[in-house]
Amino acid sequence: MLRYITLVVLFTIVSFSARTNADTNALLNNGRIVGGSNADIRQFPHQVSLRYKGSHFCGGTIYLSNVIVTATHCVSDEDATGLTIVAGSTTLLETPAVEVAVVKVIIHEKYNLINDYDVAILVLESNLTFSESIQPIALAKERPPTGTEVTVTGWGTLEEGGAYLSNQLQQVQVNLADQTKCRRTYFYLVTSRMLCANVEGGGKDSCQGDSGGPLIFGNELLGIVSWGSGCASSTYPGVYASVPDLCDWIEATANEYANSVSEIERPSHL
User: Fold this and answer.
1) Residue from 65, 166, 211, 226 carrying the catalytic annotation
2) What CA–CA distance (Å, rounded) separates 240 from 102?
3) Which UniProt keywords apply (predicted)?
């Protein structure tokens, strides 16, 4: 019996992929996050692009002037070499408005193969200067009710398995899915540190290249793009790391490194 359960879990892990962009040299296109629309960085000034040697591979969120929140599966080897973040830019192809090197990666110590505790902190080489297009965001402390409309943003691929990233930042509105139903759909691999979101009938979702980016509600960071079966499926919701259930770790870890550079700017709610 134990062997059967192990095989099912291993098969499921292979089938349900994280939403990173495996090919960091993927071509760019003026497409969109699946089912979404064009966005301006000034609408979502907390959004950043994670780059490896200049190429986008994941998203992230500004929490403090020198601290970015992202997904552990994006940076699980904890090696900051070659990593930068780009802030304040709406498109990937334009010359970055602001690009800052990452000097330290801190992953959640309980992160595991099913992407549980999928949250990480990136410490920047220097402070970001806040402006109309570069701003921190507060952490959500509670989950809204099932069905609540939430927004996810990013530069990810246009469709499941797509080879093209979106040059233009995209936004899409989805709804929080029932947690119990989502757990059953994913063979109980969805834990209490995760939340699910989709739309009835599918067609709107985050996708590859959006990993680590923000799911927001009421101008607060509610979730971190994590994993799912395909993209925009009518059956399988997108799965996000739940910030309300991880905010204590985020706050404690971020505050530990907040003094690593001078004149830290903090969100007004802190």
Assistant:
1) 211
2) 23
3) Disulfide bond, Hydrolase, Protease, Secreted, Serine protease, Signal
Residue of 73, 89, 133, 226 marked active site: 73
Write out pLDDT tens, residues 109-145: 999 999 999 999 999 999 999 999 999 999 999 999 9
Catalytic, 126? Answer no
Q: How many residues in the chain?
A: 270
Q: What is the pLDDT of residues 69-108, one digit of tens each?
A: 999 999 999 999 999 999 999 999 988 889 999 999 999 9
pTM: 0.88
Q: Tell me the two tokens of residue 129.
A: 């200067």
74-104 in b/e form (b: 16+ CB < 10 A) is: bbeeeebeebbbbbbbbbbeeebebbbebbe
Facing residues of 198 across strands? 175
Tell me which of 17, 65, 108, 116 is the catalytic residue. Answer: 116
Q: Can you tell me whether residue 11 is helix, strand or coil?
A: helix
Q: Where are the alpha helices (DSSP H) in the chain?
A: 2-15, 179-185, 247-257
Asked if 56 is an active-site residue, the reply is no
